[in-house]
């Protein structure tokens, strides 16, 4: 009987550890893939089209690698837009991208991610129209004016349909949030993860530039209201300076429950650092502590039972 009780206690400890691990991963269970706003290789069908996205301008498709919005050439402009608007209230968009070229000192200009009322209207703002209505996130690699931060830089702007993008000052007068991020010319996979909740009016951007699944906060915005039915877009342009701007994949998911995005706008986040992996290590220690605690309780109960039998 004592042997069976030990097995029971050990089983309970393992079960509790498993439950704790599942709890730590429950965010993945909150996501449901949204095929209408996701894009993967080979990107096009036998008719050289995509059911859910349109391509245009100078964009080129390599079915084994990426959608190249611009080549490493001057005066390029390309775009990629969803055909349907996003009709869900809470969603997450994870996009893999690559920016780079032959230039060592002079390169540009960058690319943009859009959630706007308009779609597929080429223009001067990273390849899309000015005076837009909705959200623009600019992955800017070229400094036009004097800035208090280094480049590359990621900047968020909410357009009301009337406000002009402050191109001469790299959007500094339009800035809601931003961060420095060394995303250009990386050999590692570079990704962005945009999370939005209409229920809580909050938006968060994380960026991966160094290690797989290591995400660094770029900014969190509160009191953000996107258009009711925004289109998802990616655009890029080059001028006298240039780069390859590639979109490798787009994974959009609807969230069953709205996320709790705490904090206010972060405008000065440092470049990605390997220190962010410390959080996962601390979580592991916490889970291990729970496991050790349960095993200790099981051992003490078994010892008391054994002592009573000897008595």
UniProtKB/TrEMBL annotation:
The species this protein was found in: Entomortierella parvispora
Keyword Transmembrane attached: yes
This protein's record includes keyword Methyltransferase: no
Topology within the bilayer: Single-pass type I membrane protein
A Pfam cross-reference name: Lectin_leg-like
Transmembrane domains' residue ranges: 280-301
Subcellular location: Membrane
Main location: membrane
Signal peptide: 1-24
GO biological process terms held by the UniProt record: endoplasmic reticulum to Golgi vesicle-mediated transport
Domain called L-type lectin-like: residue spans: 31-255
CDD domains: lectin_leg-like
A GO CC annotation given for this chain: endoplasmic reticulum-Golgi intermediate compartment
GO molecular function, one term: D-mannose binding
Gene3D superfamilies, per database record: 2.60.120.200
Keyword tags: Membrane, Signal, Transmembrane, Transmembrane helix
Name of the protein described by the UniProt record: L-type lectin-like domain-containing protein
